[in-house]
Write a structure and sequence with these properties.
Elements (H helix, E strand, L loop, with lengths): L2 E12 L2 E12 L3 E5 L6 H8 L7 E5 L6 E5 L10 H11 L4 H10 L15 H12 L6 E5 L7 H18 L2 E5 L3 H7 L2 E6 L2 E7 L8 E8 L2 H10 L3 E5 L3 E7 L3 H10 L4 E6 L4 H9 L2
Parallel strand pairs: 3-7, 3-8, 5-6, 6-7
Antiparallel strand pairs: 1-2, 1-4, 8-9, 10-12, 10-13, 11-12
């Protein structure tokens, strides 16, 4: 991974409350990374530190590989009775950017046809995309998006997701995005950082090489206790066991070895299938106290 920025042991307190506690992670060039956690976990605090809106923290944020950061934190505000084009031109002027960049971004975010309509007439999804266009005015190499699909209908969510993917692919921009829609993040992101009570508790990689990928398989057997014992004695990771099934975490190419092992010990298997463990399943499990 070609590292763009790193966060090392970042902590932040407010009076007697620990908002962030020794948060560390890295972002690579062109990857989309989800920042996931319940309300009050510290997601927005991390984003505000990265874009320079918060300075009272301890630890280190290394931005030496970053030329410019674009951000959309909370709902973007525009002049409702001006057109999308006029709004972007106003912010372009503030950023020393010309007309050509504005037209390019309207095209990139699928707003070219709506460019001359007043923002008041835009759908929420169109406003969110205009907000992303505004964040891209200075050609940043890192884009920070806090809940960009908040309040959108399914079509708007799909649109924003596809445009974020397009930006990362075509512009090689690193995207850090937070959302409550875990299924959407799983479709969009390369990795996820899960945060709870101000601490990073898990990293998830959604696009590992299939040979390396560890999958949870559900094994149904007439004697699950014996199956569990044999598997553990042979170094396999058993996730759970009850009277009906044993759940085991193995590589996709290890299935046959497991079947042969149990058969050699006289354990009859009545079923073997892949468990559909989603980001949502993992998140809910990690959020349990």
């Amino acid at each position: 991974m070609n590292r763009v920025l790193s966060v090392n042991n970042v902590s932040k307190r407010a009076k007697d409350f620990q908002i962030l506690n020794k948060v560390s992670f890295e972002l690579g060039s062109g990857e989309i990374v989800g920042l996931i956690g319940p309300n009050g976990a510290g997601k927005t605090s991390i984003m505000k530190i990265l874009v320079g809106l918060t300075r009272n923290y301890t630890g280190e944020v290394d931005l030496s590989g970053v030329r410019d950061i674009g951000c959309m934190i909370e709902t973007p505000n525009f002049y409702p009775y001006n057109t999308g084009y006029q709004n972007l031109m106003y912010f372009a002027g503030l950023n020393g950017v010309g007309k050509k960049k504005v037209e390019e971004l309207l095209e990139l975010l699928g707003l070219k046809e709506a460019a001359n309509k007043n923002v008041k007439a835009y759908s929420l999804g169109m406003r969110q995309r205009l907000g992303i266009a505004q964040a891209l005015l200075k050609d940043p190499d890192v884009l920070i998006l806090d809940e960009p699909t908040n309040g959108l209908d399914p079509e708007g969510i799909y649109e924003v997701r596809e445009y974020i993917r397009k930006i990362a692919n075509e512009k090689h921009i690193t995207v850090l995005i937070s959302s409550h829609l875990l299924g959407e993040l799983e479709k969009m992101c390369h990795r996820a950082i899960i945060i709870k009570k101000g601490e990073v508790i898990r990293f998830m990689n959604f696009h590992k090489d299939e040979k390396e990928k560890q999958i949870i398989y559900v094994m149904e057997s007439l004697d699950t206790e014996a199956a569990q014992k044999i598997l553990q004695e042979n170094g396999y990771q058993v996730v759970s066991q009850n009277e009906q099934e044993v759940r085991i975490r193995i590589g996709a190419n290890e299935k046959n070895e497991v079947v042969k092992l149990l058969a050699s010990h006289g354990v009859v298997m009545t079923g073997l299938y892949e468990a559909c463990e989603t980001l949502e399943d993992t998140f809910l499990e990690l959020m349990k106290d």
